Every structure is written in C-alpha cells, then in structure tokens.
Fold this sequence. Notes:
- This protein is of the alpha/beta class.
- Helices cover 36% and strands 19% of the residues.
- It has an 8-stranded mixed β-sheet with strand order 1-2-4-3-5-6-7-8, with helices on both faces.
- Strand 1 (29-35) and strand 2 form a beta hairpin.
- It is globular, with a radius of gyration of 17 Å.
Amino acid sequence: MTPNDPLAELLSSGLAPEAIAAEIASDAEVVKTPCGDGDLVWRRWGKGRPIVLVHGGSGSWTHWIKQIPDLKRDYEVWAVDMPGLGDSDMPPVPQIPATCGTMLALGLKTLIPREARAHVVAFSFGAHVSTHALLHLQDHVADFTLTGAAALGLPQGPGKEMPREMEGMTDEERMEVHSRIDQLAVYLQSENIRCARFRSRPFARIPEIAQHLPEVQIPVKAVWGAEDQTAGPSIEARYDVIRESHPELVTRTVPDAGHWVMYEQPAAYNKALREVLAG
C-alpha cells in the first residue's frame, strides 16, 4: 500500500464488496442524458481535464472502479453506463453499436464543452461503441485510448473460451468461474450481468473498429494486458491493425494481466494510462 492510497485502504478494510462499491460511488455526481425512451447515466468525480471512461460488454462504470480513486485526483472523471447496461436505458432501434455510439456522442457533447478537449478511454466493447461515437465528435475530444478491443477483424485468441457466469449458479460456482479474481470482482460482475439487457457478444467479430478508425481524426493510443486471451493472433497484431490508419499510435502492454487488465493490475494500468495520455 502506498501512502494516502484510498483504494488500497478500502480493499484492505474488510468491508463487504457492496460497501466498497458504494463508498467509491458515494461522492459521484449522477447526471443523465437522453437514450432512446429513457436515460444514459453518467457519474462524475473530481476536477481537472475531463477523461471519459467507457466500460466493456455486460459491464457498467464499475469496470473502472480501481481507476477512479486515482484519476479523480487530477482529472474530471466521467464514467458512463453504456446503453442497455448498468443503470442506462436501451438505445433506440436499431439496437446496434452504431446507435449506442450516437447516444454516447450526444451525451458527451451535452456534458463536456468542446474546448475542454476530453480524453476518451474505452475497454473491450466500449471501444467498439466509442469508435462510432467519435465519428460524431472528432475534435471535440483530444485522443482515444483503446484497451482490450475486439472488432478489429482479427481472430479470437488461441486460449480457452473464457468461463462465463450463468443464471442460477451457486456462490461456489460463481467463485469457480472467477477463480483468478476476488470477491469484489465476483460481486461487481454478478451485478453487471444482472443489469445487462444489451447483448454485445454477437458484435465482437464484426470489424467495425478497423473499418472506421481511418475516419477518426484524432491521436489513438492503446493499453493492453499481456495475457489477454481474447487478443488473437497476438497483441502486436492488434497494434499493427490500429497503426494501419494511425501510425502515431502510442502503446503500453501491461505484464501479468489478462483481458480486464485495469482490474487485475490497477497500479501498472494507471501508470501506463497516464504515460500514454501525457505522450
């Protein structure tokens, strides 16, 4: 534990997972923008240059729970629940990544002035949706950082199919699915799956990020977990696809971390993210 590290103090406090999540959420301002017939839900912490965190499939703002205490010391952190996930309502029809991206772009334009030049950082399916959003934003934001993105026209990684939590599992079975991570992770993702209505998995193999990145006219960066089982045929191949349209790409690969890199190795991820943003 480093001095004055609120996250480390919380994680070592003995609090129940739901209490830890509630504590981190407690000082967030909750803001809503339109999404279909309902709302897109955003949470804001801190002051400074805006940074927008976009979570992955079957997730919510809590995919970034280990980044928020660190980033809010220097940034105005906006963590969104994507359409049909977390607390946000479903997007309008057609309910596809492009429509979700339109809702994300509308919300970002509403909440963050163009002159603030926000950073956009997106994980997994969030990178897919954010790529569509950026087609509507362009110079409204400063740069785009991808983490663990699919939809690049590359095959699934060579490892085993990632185990999935299923409805009706016992607590012991859930722990077996999430055997490499802790009770907090199990709680967060169980809650996220319970709330998920938008099904992102069918879109993972559609190469829309690769197709649309050439139209994104801002600097692109990437941070990946070195052991990400979804990244086939290799992480370097993923970087190469991005470099085809963005030769300025700045990358960091975090050792000993899988797909959910920012949860598995938060200190290393936070350091890498700050480095690419500074670069």
